[in-house]
Design a protein that fits this description.
mainly alpha; two-stranded antiparallel sheet; 17 helices; 7 strands; binds flavin-adenine dinucleotide; disulfide bond; Ero1; membrane; oxidoreductase activity
């Protein structure tokens, strides 16, 4: 009898591949993470394949290029909402800024005033090498170009007046040029969904490869307060939320839902990264073999944060929000493709710039082939109410970017700022470019860097999610 029972159990286990899996309830696994990603025409499985096979490997090699690895950020700004509370003192929270000489000259863009208006290198071609748009007034092969700062512009005497927006009339005084730059910056800032601190005096370049996003030990009251403020203080007026975990998506209009889901997706992505790159060794016992600690995937931590059984059934929704956010940023990159295709990715190293350009073009080609892009055109449609909603949406998002100055751990603040700026850039692209008209639309270098890096983080999260699911099966 005993032998018979044992054989039945072995047979049942074999049929279910593993005993663990057989005994596992839906509450204790990620099996429910499949099917449609609400508010989009896309399935989780489709996105897993698309990301893990086509996007992730491309971004991995693109984001180590010089143009994308240096991010200019102000980590010293004071929190505008409350007195700074405790700072994370763990060494994993600190950020190593770049020395001035580490940053490629082309990225620093240090052009002295005399050089700005001075004699320029010239070259021939129907399109100036680094110019941001084709110059219609240039006759092919007869146009001479000159370098001005980051860009190359047609020489006025040879090409006639060009309608290129980047063209600098050298007869203007330096003062007027500076004022014009400020006015333009102000106009663009009105459209911005986040606060960009690239031009602050206190901003510094940070090498993202030397300061990877990973577990820092930042938690407790400060972290809780930041997340709570992002969710509760930035909700659209009429609602009051008790707890982030019980947001009722059914009661929200599409725009509110999109806002909540993008924040929740970002939160999920940050938490996946800290689980995927976790400090496995004891921080109080540095080993001689691994003085900087042993880092790796922590399945237990991941399960605590996302399993339905340990999150009141919410974990899978948060992961779905990650997929949703991925689709939002994917669509923004597709929409910005005409701009990105014209970008020179200038660092001052011709070979590196060319390789970066080719890698971006290759990525854009794959992104354009994706069949089920997020459709932003259904948002903010209708009368004045919807117009107000768009303004409210933007103001709330700007607030989220301000809250990032309240994060009490520099490493978390760096990546939090980069990812909110990337998302802000995506939203600006989605809701400011109308009918595909990009002529008057401009992206600053930091916006491009944050957009691609933020998307890279989401791509990495989806990839790691697959690894965690495999780990759990085993
Ligand atoms: C901007 C920012 C960046 C950070 N970066 C890092 C980092 O790089 N490395 C690091 O180690 N730590 C980082 N942290 C801290 C980390 O996110 C957690 O706050 C911390 O680990 C404590 O986790 P917790 O379990 O208390 O829950 P938290 O993640 O703090 O979540 C608080 C509550 O929000 C709800 N919730 C959780 N996830 C979601 C979601 N996806 N959607 C909706 N609701 C949710 C749950 O009810 C949860 O109890 C960062 C925090 C912030 C605010």
């Amino acid at each position: 009898m005993f032998v018979f029972s044992l054989l039945s159990v072995i047979l049942l286990c074999a049929l279910n591949q593993s005993c663990g899996q057989f005994q596992r309830k839906n509450e204790d696994c990620f099996c429910g993470l499949k099917g449609n990603i609400e508010d989009c025409e896309c399935e989780v499985d489709t996105l897993d394949d698309f990301n893990n096979v086509k996007i992730y490997p491309r971004l991995r090699s693109l984001l180590v290029k010089d143009y994308f690895r240096y991010f200019k950020v102000n980590l010293k700004k004071k929190c505008p909402f409350w007195e700074d509370d405790s700072k994370c003192s763990m060494r994993y929270c600190s950020v190593q800024s770049c020395q001035k000489d580490d940053v490629p000259i082309g990225i620093k863009g240090e052009v002295k005033k005399e050089e700005f208006f001075g004699p320029f290198l010239s070259e021939s071609g129907s399109m100036c090498r680094n110019v941001k748009k084709p110059i219609s007034s240039c006759v092919p092969n007869q146009c001479q170009c000159q370098n001005v700062g980051h860009t190359t512009v047609p020489k006025e005497n040879e090409c006639g007046r060009s309608n290129n927006l980047d063209y600098l009339n050298t007869t203007l005084s330096a003062k007027i040029v500076k004022d014009m730059e400020l006015w333009t910056a102000h106009d663009y800032a009105q459209e911005n969904f986040c606060i960009i601190d690239e031009n602050d005096d206190e901003s510094e370049y940070v090498d993202l490869l030397l300061n990877p996003e990973r577990y820092t030990g930042y938690k407790g009251k400060s972290a809780e307060r930041v997340w709570k403020s992002i969710y509760t203080e930035n909700c659209f007026q009429a609602r009051s939320w008790e707890k982030p975990s019980i947001f009722k998506l059914d009661n929200m209009c599409l725009e509110e839902r999109v806002f909540y889901r993008t924040i929740s997706g970002l939160h999920a992505s940050i938490n996946i990264h800290l689980c995927a790159n976790y400090l496995l060794s004891d921080p109080n016992k540095p080993s001689l073999i691994q003085p900087t600690g042993e880092w790796g995937m922590n399945l237990e931590e991941f399960e605590r944060r996302f399993l339905p059984s340990s999150t009141n059934g919410q974990g899978l929704n948060w992961l779905r929000n990650l997929y949703f956010l991925y689709l939002v940023e994917l669509r923004a990159i597709e929409k910005a493709a005409p701009l990105l295709e014209r970008e020179a990715f200038y660092t001052g190293n011709e070979k590196e710039d060319w390789d970066t350009k080719m890698a971006v073009n290759d990525l854009l080609k794959v992104i354009k082939q994706f069949p089920s892009h997020f459709d932003e055109s259904v948002m903010f449609m209708g009368g004045t109410d919807k117009k107000n909603l768009k303004r409210e949406f933007r103001d709330h998002f700007r607030n989220v970017s301000r809250i990032m100055d309240c994060v009490g751990c520099d490493k978390c603040k760096l990546w939090g700022k980069l990812q909110t700026q990337g998302l802000g850039t995506a939203l600006k692209i989605l809701f400011s470019i109308e009918n595909g008209k990009v002529e008057n639309f401009k992206l600053q270098r930091n916006e491009i860097v944050s957009l691609l890096n933020a998307f890279g983080r989401l791509s990495n999260s989806i990839y790691k999610l697959d690894d965690f699911r495999e780990m759990q099966k085993k």
